[in-house]
Structures are given as structure tokens and as C-alpha cells.
Amino acid sequence: MKSRDKKTNDVPDCLKLDNQLCFPLYACAKAVTHRYRPLLDPFDLTYTQYITMMVLWEKKAINVKELGEKLYLDSGTLTPVLKKLESKHYISRHRSEQDERNLIVKLTEEGAALKEKIVTVPEQMSCCIDLTREEAVELHKLLHKIITTMK
Amino acid sequence: MKSRDKKTNDVPDCLKLDNQLCFPLYACAKAVTHRYRPLLDPFDLTYTQYITMMVLWEKKAINVKELGEKLYLDSGTLTPVLKKLESKHYISRHRSEQDERNLIVKLTEEGAALKEKIVTVPEQMSCCIDLTREEAVELHKLLHKIITTMK
DNA sequence: TACAATTTAATTGTTGACAATTTAATTGTA
DNA sequence: TACAATTAAATTGTCAACAATTAAATTGTA
What we know:
three-stranded antiparallel β-sheet, homodimer, globular, Arc Repressor Mutant, subunit A, two-stranded antiparallel sheet, DNA-binding, 7 helices, mainly alpha
């Protein structure tokens, strides 16, 4: 029924969009990110800028490399994101004095203060993801399993 | 333990990257798409081009609107993707004679032939996603639940 | 110490994603 | 029929993602 050669409409099952795991994953990630937009607009943040801020709320100072490891992003993506956040006065960017290769990113007061206002965002998001607590935990577990084995 | 106000390191739990569902989703989708790259390179296809071809292998002719509904993409994304696929001679693009607003996308012979060669790709992918059959089914179910409730 | 190797960010170039707008064709209706 | 409203795709502009390369600082070692 699900072998490679079994065909309906002369396409192997494994080449059908809906039989793949990757496509729902891709579609779902886009749909969720999309939902963030109206929630983040009032704070003048994009989703990528938001997750960058999340790292900083947990860790006041961090360099680009370490930030990239947490977010799975490289400096090519992060440099412009960080410059944007700096221009919004949410973060500061300075070279480390010990090692000038490192760029240290820090929250500004304004950036730190944002944390208090923005807690409504994850609350609103979890509302519109219509899963039970158990389903959410299960999904989280499965996603992490893939992420760790992929790395 | 997981209330909004419960804090460790003075960040509410709900604002921690790893407590969110959206971030693992985003990270996982990127990791999987990334894995496609070396598999698709020999066919000179990007992931987006690949899923576009998948729709066409199932449905020989389709217009941009319908294609966009299947892939959750708009014409702003699809127009350049389709032009690229056309330049690679995998598809043809023609206006419908009945309604000139519609652009009809069709497989070329070369594009149709690609299907036979590319079946190894989903096979290789399913190998490197380290889930049991049951886990994969469960993940698929959960993702679809989110996608449908989000739309 | 000198200089090769490594490390860190930034830059460049390509592709993707999407909002907002534009253009052209078709449909609805006064 | 005339023309307003709608529809489909393309265009424009912005941000994101990532490979590959570059520039600068640091580290390792002959």
C-alpha cells in the first residue's frame, strides 16, 4: 500500500506531497510564523527579531557565534537582524575588549523593558494552536528528536 | 511550574525559546529543508522548486492560483520559481485560451522524466529522519491539525 | 619572534517569502 | 452596452536564509 512502486495516478506514494513529513513541517512552520505577524507588529518586531530578543532576555550578553548556535542561524543572517534591532534601540553591539573578533550583543534598557510588555504574545499564540497539553508535549518531543538527530 | 509568572533567571517560562512550540517547529523545518539540499543538487532543484514539481507530477496542468493553494505560496513567490523551472526546461508556462488571466503550468517531457530518477530522494530523506513509523504518523497528524486550524 | 592556521563577523550573491500595488482580463450589473 | 467590481498573475520592496568569500584578530608552532 505504501511501497515505492505502488502507484495511484502514476505517481509513487513517496513522491506525493501529503505523504511526506517535510512538507507539512514546512507548511506548518510557515503558518505559525505567519500568525505571529499581527501579534508582533505592535512591537515593531519580525519573527526572527523576536526570537533573537528571546535569547537576549535569557542571557543579557552574547556574541554572534553563540547566538547563532542557539537560533541555528549564521552571521550572514544575524548581522542584518542585529543591525535592525540596534537601530530600534533594543540592543547594543560592541566588540569585545578581550578579543576583538567577538561582537558582543547586549540588551538596552528599552530592549529589556520590552520583555514585560511582550508576554501577551506567547499567551495569544498558545491559544490559537489548538492542541491539548499532551499533544503539544508529544509534538515538542518529536520535533526535538528530529532536530537532534539531524544536527 | 509553568505559569506565566513563574520565573527562572527572571524570564517567564512562556518567553523561553525551548518552551515554545513555534521555535522547534521553525528549527526543525529548516533542518529538514537543509538536508534536502545535497540530495536535490544533482537535479539542479531547490526545495521550493522540488515541491512545485511534486504537484506537477500529480497533476499535469495547473494554474498559478491552484498551485499556490496546494503549496501555500502566492504568485509573488511562485512567479520567479516557475520562471526558473521554465528556464531549466522542466515546465512550460502558457496563458489559458479560455481565460487569459490564467497562466497554465505544464510538465515538459524532461520534467515528467525527472520523476523516475528522483524517487531516491524521498527514500533517502525518510532514512535520515529517525522516527518510528508510529511516531511519523503521529507527527503528521499533529502537524495537520495545526495547519487546518490555522487556516 | 615570524608566520601559518584558525576563528569570528561581515560581505556578496542567490533564492525564497510575503505584503502591497499594478496590470490586464473577465464578470456582474445599472 | 458601458463601466464598476472582481479575479489572476506579475511587479516592487522588504526581510530572511544560507553558501561562499573576505577581512581582521587571535592562536599555534617552527
